[in-house]
Specification:
It is a single chain. The protein is of the alpha/beta class. The chain folds into two domains: 300 residues, Zn peptidases (Aminopeptidase, 3-Layer(aba) Sandwich); 140 residues, Aminopeptidase i, Domain 2, CATH 2.30.250. The protein contains twelve helices and 23 strands. It has a nine-stranded mixed beta sheet, with helices on both faces. The chain is globular, with a radius of gyration of 24 Å.
Length: 465
C-alpha cells in the first residue's frame, strides 16, 4: 500500500514553496533550542500575524468574536493559539497539539565544581537519550537565571562564532579497553555527563583568605562580570545544555534537514504555520504547544496540567459562550491531530522495523493510529470512524500521507500527548513527520515530509464538517 515518493510529483511552484518553507523552518530552529525560546519565537510570529494576548483581552474586559485571533502563554513554557471560527465553540475545536521540549542535559542546582584544576558543570539528563552520543560534541548553554530580587537574565552561550563552546569529555581509545567491553548503555554513566567549563585559575593575591578551587573561582568571576551572577543563583536557574550549531541542509540533493530538537519542533513549526494561514475557519482552530512531553507530560506546563482546559474556558467566556456544560461539550466534540514525530525507516538497522508498517522519507505526513509499547500499553488508539474522516480530508486536499508503527511489536514503543487529550472524549490521532536519529543530538527529516505535514495541518483546520 506504500505510495510513490512525493518528490516525483511536485511541479516548479510546489518545489519553490517547499524550499521557502524549509528555509523558514531552519531559521525557526536556530532560535528555539529550549521550550522558553520556542514560546518567545512563536509569540513574536503570532503577534506579527495579528494575534493578541488573551490575558490582555481579559484584563480589558473585551469581547471576542468569529475571526478574532488570540494566544495564551503559561509560565513561559507552554501556549495555545486560537482563531475563532464561525460555529459556536461548543461544537468543538480543531486542535493541532505538539510539544516544544526536547531531550537535553540540564544543569543541577549546585552544578559548578573543580577537580584537578579543571572546572565542570554537573548535569542531569532530560528525556530518553543515548548517553554516549553526548560526548565530544560542541555544546551550548541556553536558559534563564532568576534572581531573588525578581529579575531574570537570559543566557545563550555557544551559538555565535565568537562564543566559546562546551563539551562532555570521553576516554581516549588508547585507554578504553575496559570501557569498550561494556554495553553501549553502560559505557557512559549519567553522573559522567559533566560539562567541561574551564581550566584557567584565578590569580590570587598572596594574602587571599580563600585559595581553594582557583579555576572555579575564575569561572564565578566571569559569571559575575557578564551576568551579575553569584554562585547561589544557580539554585534558581534553568540552564540547558544543547548541541551548538545551526540547522543545515543534508545530502548532495539538499533534500533533508539536520538539526537538534526536531522531535518535536518539526511538528510544532508546521502546526503554527498552518494556523497562521487559516483566516476564517468554520470551527475554532487551535495550535497547542506543550512542555514536558519527553518526561511524561507532567507538571504545571505539561499536557496533563489544566492549562489548556482553562484557556478554552477563558476563550469561551470572552465569546459569551461559557458554561461548565458548554466547555465539556466543546472539549468532547473536538477533533485533534497529536502532532508528534514518528520513526523513519533506516535500512542500516532494518531488523528493528516491520517494513510494511514503517514510515519512509518523502512519503508524506505519518499517521500512527496507536502508539504505546508492546501490547499497546499506554497508547491512544484512534477509532476507525475518525481515521476514515482524516483519510478523506487528506485525499480531498491531495496531501501525501502514510501510516506507521514505532518499530516491531516487541522492540519498539513510545508515547505522545494524544492519550491525555483523549481523556476529554475527543477524537485524537497521532500525525507527524518521520525522523531519523530520533532523540540524538542531531536528528534528520525530509523537506518533503515537512511540506506535506504543513499542508495536512491546513486541510485539517479548514475541514468544514
Amino acid at each position: 500500500m506504500r505510495k510513490e515518493n512525493r518528490w516525483t510529483n511536485y511541479d516548479e511552484k510546489q518545489i519553490k514553496d517547499l524550499n521557502a518553507l524549509a528555509e523558514d523552518y531552519k531559521d525557526f530552529m536556530n532560535h528555539v533550542k529550549t521550550e522558553r525560546e520556542a514560546v518567545e519565537e512563536v509569540t513574536k510570529r503570532a503577534r506579527k500575524a495579528g494575534y493578541r494576548d488573551l490575558a490582555d483581552v481579559i484584563a480589558k474586559g473585551e469581547s471576542l468574536k468569529s475571526g478574532d485571533k488570540v494566544y495564551a502563554v503559561w509560565m513561559k513554557k507552554t501556549m495555545a493559539l486560537f482563531t475563532i471560527g464561525t460555529e459556536p465553540i461548543e461544537k468543538g475545536l480543531r486542535i493541532l497539539g505538539a510539544h516544544i521540549d526536547s531531550p537535553r542535559l540540564d544543569l543541577k542546582q549546585v552544578p559548578l565544581y573543580e577537580n584537578t584544576e579543571m572546572a565542570f558543570l554537573d548535569t542531569h539528563y532530560y528525556g530518553g537519550v543515548k548517553k554516549y552520543q553526548w560526548t565530544t560534541i560542541p555544546l551550548a548553554i541556553h536558559g534563564v537565571i532568576a534572581k531573588k530580587d525578581g529579575s531574570t537574565v537570559n543566557v545563550r552561550i555557544g551559538e555565535d562564532e565568537e562564543d566559546p563552546i562546551f563539551c562532555v569529555t570521553d576516554l581516549l581509545i588508547h585507554l578504553s579497553k575496559d570501557q569498550m567491553a561494556k554495553t553501549l548503555g553502560d559505557a557512559i554513566t549519567g553522573e559522567n555527563l559533566d560539562v567541561l567549563a574551564g581550566s584557567r585559575p584565578l590569580k590570587l593575591e598572596e594574602d587571599a583568605k580563600d585559595k581553594k578551587d582557583p579555576v572555579k573561582q575564575n569561572i564565578l568571576a566571569i559569571l559575575k562580570e557578564k551576568y551579575d551572577m553569584e554562585e547561589d543563583d544557580f539554585l534558581s536557574a534553568e540552564l540547558e545544555i544543547v548541541p551548538a550549531g545551526k540547522a543545515r541542509d543534508l545530502g548532495f540533493d539538499r533534500s533533508m534537514i539536520a538539526a537538534y530538537g526536531q522531535d518535536d519542533r518539526v511538528c510544532a513549526f508546521p502546526s503554527l504555520d498552518a494556523l497562521l494561514r487559516v483566516e476564517k475557519p468554520a470551527y475554532t482552530a487551535c495550535c497547542l504547544l506543550t512542555d514536558k512531553e519527553e518526561i511524561g507530560s507532567v507538571g504545571a506546563t505539561g499536557a496533563q496540567s489544566h492549562f489548556f482546559e482553562n484557556a478554552v474556558a477563558e476563550l469561551m467566556d470572552r465569546c459569551g459562550q461559557y458554561s461548565d456544560l458548554a466547555l465539556r461539550r466543546a472539549l468532547s466534540s473536538s477533533k485533534m491531530l497529536s502532532s508528534d514525530v514518528s520513526a523513519a525507516f533506516d535500512p542500516l538497522y532494518s531488523e528493528a522495523y516491520e517494513q510494511k508498517n514503517s514510515a519512509f522519507f518523502g512519503h508524506g505526513i505519518v499517521y500512527n493510529k496507536y502508539t504505546g509499547a508492546r501490547g499497546k500499553s499506554g497508547s491512544n488508539d484512534a477509532n476507525a470512524e475518525y481515521f476514515a474522516w482524516v483519510r478523506r480530508v487528506m485525499d480531498d486536499a491531495n496531501v501525501a500521507f502514510q501510516t506507521s508503527e514505532l518499530g516491531k511489536v516487541d522492540i519498539g514503543g513510545g508515547g505522545t500527548i494524544a492519550y491525555i487529550s483523549a481523556l476529554y472524549g475527543m477524537n485524537v490521532v497521532d500525525a507527524g513527520v518521520a525522523v531519523l536519529n530520533m532523540h540524538a543530538p542531531m536528528e534528520i527529516t525530509s523537506k518533503s515530509d515537512l511540506y506535506e505535514a504543513r499542508n495536512a495541518y491546513v486541510a485539517f483546520l479548514e475541514a468544514a464538517e
